[in-house]
Specification:
Helix content: 25-40%
Oligomer: single chain
Distance between the termini: 23 Å
CATH topology: Rossmann fold
Radius of gyration: 16 Å
Strand order of the largest sheet: 1-3-4-2-5-6-7
């Protein structure tokens, strides 16, 4: 029998913890963190809110509104982190440079970071920012899982074709270590696969749940 994924309860009780403008303002570097990254307007905040069944992350029609590292508590040992969105032209250059400097410091020095969820808009995948994140993840040995967001904007057949194309490109350029799936926040598509990844990274998969590897 398929048992309930243990990450579900934690996500449903998640609460806002703090916002950090600099790495030294982050919570103590212990336990388990999973960070959510993506180019501005890739659907990152909507994905976080759907996964947590709450309105934790601020959504906006104006891209680039997430300007801090936002931490959300699942339990005493586990956190989700909403990283600043990147790549929107209207964000001032000094602010972009600030984000970049502190994002690099967070990603490169955070011992509790166990994995990175990268959001790509299925209509505009593999942007320059996405390629940089793929390079960084492989070079640093950081587990990465990609959500092809806004999959409801395409027919299922078209979405599946994009998934297969991006998956093929990633395997050719970066190997087989990076997993990928379709995701839609409004349609709640792909939640189970995403929860499976989170549970594995946070070492919850062996606590009474039979979970499969995420589909591709």
């Amino acid at each position: 029998m398929q048992l309930k994924n243990p990450i579900l309860g934690l996500c449903q009780q998640s609460t806002f913890m703090l916002s950090a403008a600099k790495v030294d303002q982050c919570p103590d570097d212990e336990g388990f963190e999973v960070a959510f990254a993506g180019r501005s307007n890739a659907g990152k905040s909507s994905a976080l809110n759907t996964l947590t069944h709450a309105s934790l992350a601020r959504t906006s029609k104006t891209p680039g509104r997430t300007q801090l590292l936002n931490f959300f508590k699942l339990d005493d040992d586990r956190r989700l982190v909403d990283l600043p969105g990147y790549g929107y032209a209207k964000v001032p250059i000094p602010l972009k440079l600030h984000w970049q400097r502190h994002l690099e410091a967070y990603l490169g020095g955070r011992e509790s970071l166990k994995g990175l969820i990268l959001m790509m808009d299925i209509r505009h995948p593999m942007t320059d920012f996405d390629l940089l994140m793929l390079d960084w993840a492989v070079a640093s040995g950081m587990p990465m899982h990609i959500l092809l967001t806004k999959a409801d904007k395409l027919t299922y057949g078209a979405a599946k074709n994009v998934l297969l194309k991006v998956q093929s490109d990633i395997r050719k350029g970066w190997g087989d270590a990076i997993s990928i799936q379709l995701f839609s926040a409004p349609k709640r598509m792909g939640l189970e696969d995403a929860y499976t990844v989170l549970a594995g990274w946070m070492e919850l998969a062996d606590k009474g749940a039979e979970v499969a590897q995420p589909g591709v």
